[in-house]
Amino acid sequence: MASKANNDGAPDKRSLKGAIMQFFVFLLLLFLPVAAEAAELADVAKAILYIDAKDGVEKGDQFAEAINENIRKEHWDELSVFVAAIRYAENGKKGKEYGILHPRVKPTYRSQAGWCAATVQKNYDRWKKGGCKGEFIVFLGSKYCPVGADNDPDNLNKNWVPNVRYHVNRIKNMKG
């Protein structure tokens, strides 16, 4: 399979992604009769598709980059679904898509996704180090979107954990 090259001679990311997806589909069709149950998509792939559906393939690529660069590989399946669910729950406008309000975050989709992914990974590490007390989603909500925060005069943060949980469940239950 040939992939297009960009101006500097490197493979075009979109073409490379398409080629990889075509190859995956080929392998899936080849082995489908033998391993139908193994064809279940990994949660990280489901999270990317969930973002593609909301924000388009280009933003889905940026989401995938953010996961790759900010979440350790062994946690991609487990934590990527939280990052995607946060995007849906926050539903922020351009430059605030993931609800990141830190003054150093750039007002871009990629920066928002990256900061969100890094925040999820860091808080997962804190939760694990603290003995995994309670549900991770509740722990994360207390840091990411705390109830009673000064910037939440209408007390909307109380909906964050249920909203994120709803989307995490939708992502995990997607069929491949």
Q: What's the total count of β strands?
A: 0
Q: How many structural domains does the protein architecture include? A: 2
Poorly predicted spans: 1-5, 34-39
Counting H and I runs of at least 4 residues, what is the number of helices?
Answer: 7
Give the biggest sheet.
none
Question: Kindly state the mean pLDDT as a whole number?
Answer: 87
Radius of gyration from the CA trace? 18 Å
The SSE order reads HHHHHHH
The amount of beta strand, in percent, is: under 5%
Compute the separation of the termini in Å. 24 Å
Short description:
This protein is an all-alpha fold. The chain contains 7 helices and no strands.
Please characterize this protein's 3D structure.
Helices cover 59% and strands 0% of the residues. It has two domains: 12-40; 42-172. The protein has helices spanning 13-31, 43-55, 57-70, 76-90, 109-129, 136-144, 160-172. The protein has 176 residues and is mostly helical.
List the topology elements:
Layout: H1 13-31, H2 43-55, H3 57-70, H4 76-90, H5 109-129, H6 136-144, H7 160-172
Helix pairs in contact: 2-3, 2-4, 3-5, 4-5, 4-7, 5-6, 6-7
Which structural traits does this protein have?
7 helices, 176 residues, 2 domains, 59% helix, globular, mainly alpha
